[in-house]
């Protein structure tokens, strides 16, 4: 490589790294309450969200990001949480918004939580994949991470991948890589659809429902408008062979719904990204 090219590569790497920040652990510095503020509280590195018949509650990050690893420790609503949804996701704004979702759908006492994952590109979603968790997510805090880079998006539970959405933009499949996104959390009532398709309603005698969040960390690139699209892009290794094995194990044993196999929903047509590899 010529000397000039080496200098150019070095400058590009420096430009990318200069945009990457570490938002660390302290909710009071990195997020703020957006609704239900009379219910929720931020105390240092802890965020508590509360839902009752009067209101749910929510918070969002002060910064917008483009690519990075966003992680959160969450302890979900215990007991009979049917009808409730605890959400943790990235989203831009507007009708053509992008979004990457973790939604935890409550259930009756003794039944497993359902993790609903979804992705929106240019305002279009309907890409749900759902999983049962293989542990009690209400007993302790567990790590939920969204890893988003120009090549792929990976959803992790305790460092174990559960889903991948890859970039096939060169084949006409939209990918979220041109809009900065904030981090959002919320706890709300969705008993019209959340538990068994809305058959099980929220039992308000168990209110107030409480979800706890801790150790929010974002190692991500700061969004600074359109200039960020090139500055934040970098080559990131894809899933390793052992991680692909973990992904296969989760999908085989704990996946309960995959939009890619729901041909009735899409009038017999398979969404184009579903023809690509899922592992």
Please give a handful of descriptors for the protein shown.
single chain; 279 residues; mainly beta; 8-stranded antiparallel beta sheet; 16 strands; 14% helix; globular
Give the SSE map.
Elements: H1 3-19, E1 20-25, H2 27-30, E2 31-35, E3 41-43, E4 46-51, E5 57-61, E6 65-75, E7 84-91, E8 99-105, E9 114-120, E10 129-132, E11 142-148, E12 152-157, E13 160-166, E14 182-189, E15 209-222, H3 228-231, H4 241-254, E16 255-258
Short description:
The chain is mainly beta.
What does this 3D model show about the protein?
- This protein is mainly β and 279 residues long.
- Helices cover 14% and strands 39% of the residues.
- Strand 11 and strand 12 (152-157) form a beta hairpin.
Alpha-beta classification? mainly beta
C-alpha Rg (nearest Å): 19 Å
> DSSP strand (E) fraction?
35-45%
Total number of helices? 4
Question: What's the end-to-end separation, in Å?
Answer: 35 Å
The averaged pLDDT comes out at: 89
> Main beta sheet: strand number and arrangement?
8 strands, antiparallel
DSSP strand tally: 16
Name the shape in a single word: globular
Spans where pLDDT lies below 50 across 5 or more residues: 1-18
* Elements, N to C (H/E): HEHEEEEEEEEEEEEEEHHE
Question: Helix proportion of residues, in percent?
Answer: 10-25%
